[in-house]
Batch of 2 targets.
Target 1
Amino acid sequence: MTTRVWDYLAEYEAERRDILDAVETVFDSGQLVLGASVRGFEEEFAAYHGADHCVGVDNGTNALTLGLQALGIGPGDEVITVSNTAAPTVVAIDAAGATPVFVDVRAEDFLMDTDQVAAAVTDRTRCLLPVHLYGQCVDMAPLKELADRHGLAVLEDCAQAHGARRGGTLAGTTGDAAAFSFYPTKVLGAYGDGGAVLTSDAAVDRRLRQLRYYGMEERYYTLRTPAHNSRLDEVQAEILRRKLRRLDRYVEGRRAVARRYAEGLAGTSLELPRTTPGNEHVYYVYVVRHPRRDDIIERLRAYDIHLNISYPWPVHTMSGFAHLGYAEGSLPVTERLAGEIFSLPMYPSLPLDLQDKVVHALREVLETL
Ligand SMILES: *Cc1c(COP(=O)(O)O)cnc(C)c1O
């Protein structure tokens, strides 16, 4: 059997009755759009985080775009983020009409190098957009301090960090707003697309509700600013409510896989993920590093193991963002990583025998490299 980096079928098998009950609950409810399930999920997701508001939207990319717009970010504004991220982080900034500005990441944990942010601030900077990549949180304290000093907004990209903590603080609870994705592979994943924005600012919450609903202030009232249709689907919201109750268990499952990999691969030439002190990693992906990455991936195919790279092309090197003017070599750590990292299979229901198969195959490949 082919071993893939992600697979939901074992989890579905275990949770089938609950998932299908969620679908039936919505179909029986008489309200298929923005009903009790979206409202219920918004309340429960906000409560999980101790935040005042949550607005469900259709995906994580639009959670970022609407989050930026609700914070007043638009054309002419610069948003400081990283290039070592999923392309949608940057696509969302572009969609809001703003200009992405990149800083490099730290070689230790591949997260935003917060020491570089101050030098990237210009008189057009309006927002800092840290990405809690792979399941670990960026150090928010220096970013908050900088944002307060310059009057900048902070939007957290939490698409890979549901349930992650740093210094005991949950991802998504430090910035002015936080964007989440519930794409199926995520730590909290739907059975289709979904997203949400968290905020404890009532005005931001109100703007988000307009932005996801054509720009209307209330149902069928006239609108001042044409916006989007970005509603969270009612069925996905009900499934997410059920799965939110199990979020901490999913995270524990991911940590158990990570521990088994760390034990099995200790002493090899593979650089394993490092948890930065204070972080509680949720292992959205298990990213390892090796200078001969491409050879390793190629040889693992013989074992029927297919691995992913998150991400093989830094966003600033993509032709769609060439106009931003980042030459090759401008973000050296990001560029070096892109050629050396790859991700091992990671999901809470990953069977033990597949975990061991990956470890044994990797050990064999590394010994004969
Ligand atoms: C998945 C992801 C997104 C986009 O989420 P979608 O729901 O796929 O639109 C944005 N940022 C990061 C870091 C992601 O991993």
Target 2
Amino acid sequence: MYAGVWLLLLLAAGTLGVPEDEESRRIYLQFNPGSSSSAVNLLHTRAVGNGSTIHYVWSSIGAPAVLLIYTETEHSQLRLNWTKLLSPDPSGAIAIEPADSVLYSTALAFTRIFEYNDVNNTANFSGAAERYFYPSYDLSNFVWENANNTLNSSSLSFHLTGVNATDPTGSFRNGSISFKVTAYDRHGRDASSPRLLHTANCTKLEFQMSGVQPRGNRSRFALEMFTLEEKSGRKKKRSVRSIDDEYTPTIFEVIELVPDAPNASHAQGYFQWKSVAYGSQNGTRSDSLPCVVHGLQDMNGTLPAPSIIQAFYGEQLGSRYNMVALNVSFGIADGDFYDKNKYLVWSALVGYGTPPRDSFSVLVICIMAVALGLPLVLLIMGTILVWYLKKTVFTNYQPIN
Ligand SMILES: *[C@@H]1O[C@H](CO)[C@@H](O)[C@H](O)[C@H]1NC(C)=O
Ligand SMILES: *[C@@H]1O[C@H](CO)[C@@H](O)[C@H](O)[C@H]1NC(C)=O
Ligand SMILES: *[C@@H]1O[C@H](CO)[C@@H](O)[C@H](O)[C@H]1NC(C)=O
Ligand SMILES: *[C@@H]1O[C@H](CO)[C@@H](O)[C@H](O)[C@H]1NC(C)=O
Ligand SMILES: *[C@@H]1O[C@H](CO)[C@@H](O)[C@H](O)[C@H]1NC(C)=O
Ligand SMILES: *[C@@H]1O[C@H](CO)[C@@H](O)[C@H](O)[C@H]1NC(C)=O
Ligand SMILES: *[C@@H]1O[C@H](CO)[C@@H](O)[C@H](O)[C@H]1NC(C)=O
Ligand SMILES: *[C@@H]1O[C@H](CO)[C@@H](O)[C@H](O)[C@H]1NC(C)=O
Ligand SMILES: *[C@@H]1O[C@H](CO)[C@@H](O)[C@H](O)[C@H]1NC(C)=O
Ligand SMILES: *[C@@H]1O[C@H](CO)[C@@H](O)[C@H](O)[C@H]1NC(C)=O
Ligand SMILES: *[C@@H]1O[C@H](CO)[C@@H](O)[C@H](O)[C@H]1NC(C)=O
Ligand SMILES: *[C@@H]1O[C@H](CO)[C@@H](O)[C@H](O)[C@H]1NC(C)=O
């Protein structure tokens, strides 16, 4: 038993350890700052910590997108020129003051949703032939609900919910797609699947398709997005094996998009998710849908549509930033189709600094400790038992005949 206890203590010290990240941030949420109109949605999250501020700007202007801007002061401010922002050339409409406090920035935009007919139930999105694809949904032409009504300052969340405006097939009559955003003021773990671990340096995004009528009963979906990084550091994909744990059983992979900038003098941004989505609201294991990332494809400096990304980075961003596109497809071969529950949810984190990492949970440590300690206990008990039996039973043994 001692071996087990020691192992438990060692693991507990090594992996749980002293939480190195007790950092917290004050979160301020604002809807359309400086504008009294609610015709468009722009949400500003300011996460103020000790000597730094992380600004997140979420918007459905153009394609839904987020800007992450890290400044090394608690007093940086977001400046918006609404006239310019809503004009065809929004370059320069979004800025941070003072400009030289900006140490790092990145952006992520969600551009299209692909739907294809998975005739043979192989969930092979990249291998599906062109003719099995339905016309894709272009998120930059969706109509978005007023997000001010969804803003909840106690749960630090809001959602951007939209429908296809020109909807000849009626797919969006009873449904919508939405991006639910939750900010965090401290370290913790989500209560809902896939139980993501988070810090005060990140924000959660849940992409949800709910009630949208698929155009076939074997429909599967994929989400297209793009992200950018300064020329000195191209975004790369990193697959991290996670421990099969009590929180998301059977899901072993965490994907991270991080800049490949070995010489960076400061921390950078990340985009992280577990390779799983859920096909029902309750997010149980039986409804889990593995997801696969495809890409990253170089966009050669071309922006698909004007958006807050152009508003912040300006028109010439192609010459200063590397832009890459990627798709995340949902579903598993021989699995249920979207049609079953007409529901899909996928969660990811956008953040700054070190991406959160799962370590062995207390439960797993206990199981391991027991697993390693038990044989020893059995061995000791067995020895004692044999000794005892020898002493008492066998010495009293009398042959029957
Ligand atoms: C957003 O909602 C708040 C409270 O519900 C309201 O005071 C504010 O005027 C709204 N903002 C806009 C731009 O509509
Ligand atoms: C803020 O950070 C500085 C330097 O990193 C540290 O010396 C100081 O104790 C911190 N203050 C608080 C309140 O955490
Ligand atoms: C906002 O942008 C418009 C159009 O580009 C410009 O005319 C105006 O001066 C700008 N306002 C401010 C306060 O910079
Ligand atoms: C589906 O499977 C059939 C039979 O195996 C095959 O002939 C057909 O090409 C497959 N279709 C697709 C789209 O893969
Ligand atoms: C997906 O389909 C493509 C083309 O048909 C094929 O090359 C590839 O091996 C398939 N991938 C998987 C995982 O089956
Ligand atoms: C809306 O859906 C139809 C098909 O139902 C598609 O042709 C059209 O492109 C969609 N519109 C947008 C903005 O995605
Ligand atoms: C805001 O979130 C809290 C905590 O999740 C919840 O209890 C409350 O009902 C929400 N308020 C609204 C108006 O949705
Ligand atoms: C929308 O819901 C109504 C009632 O639940 C149903 O009758 C109708 O068929 C649905 N329409 C679509 C396009 O799913
Ligand atoms: C899809 O619909 C067709 C025709 O209505 C039906 O024969 C088939 O069984 C359905 N497939 C699934 C997977 O529900
Ligand atoms: C989970 O959701 C599905 C469909 O939405 C439902 O049929 C099932 O009963 C739910 N399971 C639990 C445990 O709530
Ligand atoms: C970018 O250029 C490369 C090589 O010229 C090409 O293969 C790729 O398809 C282009 N990407 C886009 C998004 O146009
Ligand atoms: C959070 O950001 C701060 C900079 O303000 C950085 O020092 C810290 O390491 C980050 N924490 C994590 C967990 O990335």
